[in-house]
Amino acid sequence: MDRIVYDRMAAHDTTHWWYRARREILSDYLERYGALPRESHILEIGCGTGHNLPMLARFGEVDAIEIDETARDFASERLGKPVGSAPLPELAGVAPESYDLVAVLDVIEHVDDDVGALKAMAARLKPGGKILITVPAHQWMWSAHDVVNHHKRRYSKATLVKALEAAGLTWKQLRWFNSLLFPVAVAARMAGKLMGKDDSDDSPPAKPLNSAFEAIFGIERHLLGRVPMWPGLSIIVLAQPKKPS
What we know:
The chain is of the alpha/beta class. 39% of the residues lie in helices and 20% in strands. The protein has helices at residues 3-12, 17-33, 53-56, 69-79, 114-123, 144-148, 157-166, 182-194, 207-218, 220-223; strands at residues 40-45, 60-65, 99-105, 125-136, 169-177, 234-241. Strand 1 (40-45), helix 3 and strand 2 (60-65) form a beta-alpha-beta unit. The longest helix is centred in the N-terminal third of the chain and has 17 residues, at 17-33. The mean pLDDT is 94.
């Protein structure tokens, strides 16, 4: 990712509506569908500034990996211990069969070999372990945001399933999310393109609008997996290695 993306993350990850609501949605999703053992051992790969680490710590002991040095320093301070730097897909030095949950939250779209990355994560799971994956959706939504974030692709449900299958994974609760605000996002992105203003700035809007977006997005914590949702800006899934036949 461009340096400015990490700088904005560090500045806004406690106040921006997207970060705040998303953490609670992910927490509820794991609570309902994760079926994690007590005192789980959890690894977040690509943790950025560490803004998800306190949320993941509700479910167990957390380790983390981040390849950007400055972001890694932020994350290490939040985690209270050093954050590693092993890149995907190799994950060099990360012990096999060590984790009940590996979280990759908007990460695999940054990796050239997403299938190889998923295989490497699967090898680090304990028996019965799971991978929590979120990815940006809809290749036709490609914009300056994807460019500065160094995305390799955006996913459809079909392309994500294809990658999971190629990595030898099965899955459950593959769902759209960030759906309630999807029409607003599409309208804003299309208007920007028509006006020649394809802007990568993802700083938070004015406080009243930021609060409104957080409240609307936050409703999805009660809906995700419980009611059918129309397409959203993101896809979420829990995956795990297929059992030998």
